[in-house]
Records
---
Amino acid sequence: MTGLKALTSASSGSETGSGVLPQSLNMRVLIVDDDSATRKMLAALLAQMGIGCTQAGSGKEALHLLKAQPLDAVISDLRMPGISGMELLTEVRRLHPHIVFLVVTGTDDIQVGIRAMQEGADDYLVKPFQVDAGIVSASLARALHKKRLEREIENYRHHLEEMVAEQTQQLREALSQVERSYDHTVEVLGAAIDLRDSPTAGHSRRVFLYSIEMAKALGGLEQHQLRNIAMGAWLHDIGKLAISDGILLKPGPLTDEERQVMQQHVQIGYDMVRGIPFLADAAEIIFAHHERCDGSGYPRGLKAAEIPVGARIFAVADTFDAMTSDRPYRRALPFKASRDVIDQESGKLYDPQVANVFLNIPGETWETIRRETATAQAFGTATASNIQALSGLAKSGNG
Ligand SMILES: [Fe+2]
């Protein structure tokens, strides 16, 4: 039985992976060889297998044909003038990574064929071909099968990447929804504090906005730190929800005993929120919001850098808001007078760096925040605007 007969009888296999070419395979092969006799012989061999061929006498012509028409495989000689077989291989791999590429070597340069495979060739054939046509057929079949697997893997990987991207997007949206839910929850809690402590109406809202303004101007803070400062400032007095009306709303000065009860609001607030994961860092600000730079604050008498930066920022915002707000026992101080007090107490009660940041922010900025907060409250829109502020902060970082 000749090689061709063997091929014909064996080619009933339907899978190229079986090592033989299926009869139904409608493929076109480009034969590249500077020797026309070799080209013709190989073309005749492939024609008997039912494979159509296009011929090129040089690497340059081969590249032109590959560009001009669809081809499934290249069988190229390695030794050619001009563009060599190896150079053609490199170029074909760059331009047509999915095309089958077989190299042809003589019996004396098999090592070159092996090197070609290391460089991306799918297989190598040894001249003369007439020894066994089945070898050519099997080589083509293996290479086609390999390429098909490569394409399937690539398609699978691409599909996998698309799936991962889609699921990542879904996860982001879900997280965003959860964050918005957090914002709503925090918003309601803050509003409850302001309603409870009516003499300082809008206080939580204003110190929240003042603190964000200073935190952004201070710089060097990560997005999550800004968010924690915003949350901590917004909820700083949450512990006051547990203080009795008789003490919280007392118009006159507190007795020592009442003051001690009132001061418990930092511990109560801290205990209320520290177990909530997304408020755990804000809880530290709540706990330290009455600490002062010189150690004169409470409850722990922390000094300077011992105090969380969010609480140091808050201390300035809190004092500024208290001085510029009307109280039952006195009228609000002018903005300039309030700024002078903070300037005088810089380095004592207040972190000098934070105080400096505060003093460098134009007075119009504070006036605008106060005016807009009052307007929002009057029209009952403050809740929505603060949720947007919190959400915007989370998205833009320091924007
Ligand atoms: Fe407080």
---
Amino acid sequence: MDVVALGTSGSYAKYGEACSGYLFRSGTTNVLVDIGNGVLANLFRYLDPHELDAIVVTHLHADHVADLFPLGLYLRWNPRPGKDLLEVHAPEGSCALLESFQPWAGPGELSRVFRFVDLPAPFTAGPMSFRFVPTRHLIPTFALVCQEGDRRIGFSADTSWDEGLPAAFEGCDALLCEATYQGPKGIDRVHLSACEAGRMAARAKVPRLVLTHLWPESDPGTTMAEAAGEFAGTLERISAHGRIVV
Ligand SMILES: [Zn+2]
Ligand SMILES: [Zn+2]
């Protein structure tokens, strides 16, 4: 399986960038994890959204969910007869909360094209299975591990340091981890620093760490150096259209 990054900016995106979105693929199965601002346009480079098997929204911060609204419009006004509603795995209450952002459309607007399923229930799409663990963030948020056969990729979503979280990623071949801040510590209940992302990978004993969700003003070289101070394995930084193959 592989993961194509469709957007990796933390919190907001600068010119030519997009916020969080990752396309998990295996064969003809496609699962989009997060759909932040700018992700939908990049998704069209790879597939028609009707080809998605499911969407995961790790949490309702705009940089992870904003493009769900225009995707809803695309699906509604370019329907494919006979297609089931597209499953959106998201924290409990997401549908009503998101619909309240556009009250003029009325309740049920998103339910016309999406079927919401509450996280953290695990699910399977084709050969890939997804399981979830809560993170330490400002609002309910879920990290995930995607597994196909004996291959696993972990994704931290947004989180601050949590002593229990590294164990969730043990056995992963690669960990896609947010590294928003620099310096020794991130901000509790907000985000990790790059040092903490490195420590997360070291504690989880994963061979490969892929940094994402950098603060757009941060110097990436410094972020990489700080993570490398805590993690001795293969270290990369991913940006839009980058791929992780396991
Ligand atoms: Zn974020
Ligand atoms: Zn967030």
